[in-house]
Write a structure and sequence with these properties.
elongated, alpha/beta, Nucleotidyltransferase, domain 5, five-stranded mixed beta sheet, 5 strands, 9 helices
Length: 232
């Protein structure tokens, strides 16, 4: 069974879409059965409003830069098509990202994504490492994921980093693949155990000793072997 997951991140003008804050960037990475496919989605978005200084300091995206990009209204169908009907959405602090995505979709007449289709890696990390720092930078450091290029928040870069972190939170990519391999091997072994084993008959071979070999053996027993166990 194929499991398709979309690890994604958003950048915004603020925290509250219901108060007029908007998406300014979406980045996403596709996984199939927990393996990156190389397929990505990236889009800068015209928020149709100024970007507050506090938000600009986080992602470095000004309205002057964003104003020539399409609005979310213009790319919404493209995003919906990319996610598809069965894509599972994976995000860090997913309630924040999903709040913006669903607010925008609902306003345009699209169906909202139910929480059942969402995986929150922040909650996963909190359960796995209670009491520890679990922001993206801290998790990259914990798992040895190179985030040296992350001087500012960027949706596609953060999605790519999060995809690596997500696989580590799941136990690493290799164990998942190994699990699939073990299933295949156990199936093959079970099938093989049900097959009759054909054994070829081989006649016993005779290896007669020479007189010299018999004499050498008797000399060894009589004169060289001391405290033999069968004589104790």
């Amino acid at each position: 069974m194929m499991v398709r997951e979309i690890v994604f991140d958003t950048e915004t003008t603020g925290f509250y879409p219901e108060e007029g804050d908007k998406l300014v960037e979406i980045g996403a990475v596709e996984l199939i059965n927990h393996i990156p496919t190389g397929v990505t989605y990236h889009q800068y978005i015209n928020p149709e409003r100024e970007v507050p200084e506090e938000a600009f300091k986080v992602h470095g995206l000004s309205y002057d830069y964003l104003k020539d990009f399409p609005t979310f209204r213009e790319v919404a169908q493209q995003w919906v098509d990319f996610i598809g009907d069965d894509g599972i959405l994976v995000a860090h602090n997913a309630s924040f990202d999903m709040k913006f995505i669903n607010f925008e979709l609902k306003g345009l007449g699209f169906a909202e994504y139910p929480w059942e289709r969402v995986v929150d890696t922040l909650e996963m990390a909190r359960k796995k490492f209670p009491g520890a720092r679990v922001n993206l930078d801290a998790l990259c450091k914990r798992f040895g994921v190179d985030n040296s290029n992350r001087t500012l928040h960027g949706a596609l870069l953060d999605a790519q980093l999060l995809a690596e972190v997500y696989l580590e939170l799941l136990g690493g990519q290799e164990p998942s693949m190994l699990g699939d391999l073990k299933q295949e091997v156990s199936h093959d072994v079970a099938a093989a155990s049900e097959m009759p084993i054909e054994r070829k008959f081989r006649a016993p071979r005779d290896f007669p000793l020479t007189a010299e070999e018999i004499a050498a053996h008797e000399d060894f027993l009589a004169n060289k072997l001391k405290n033999a166990i069968w004589n104790l």
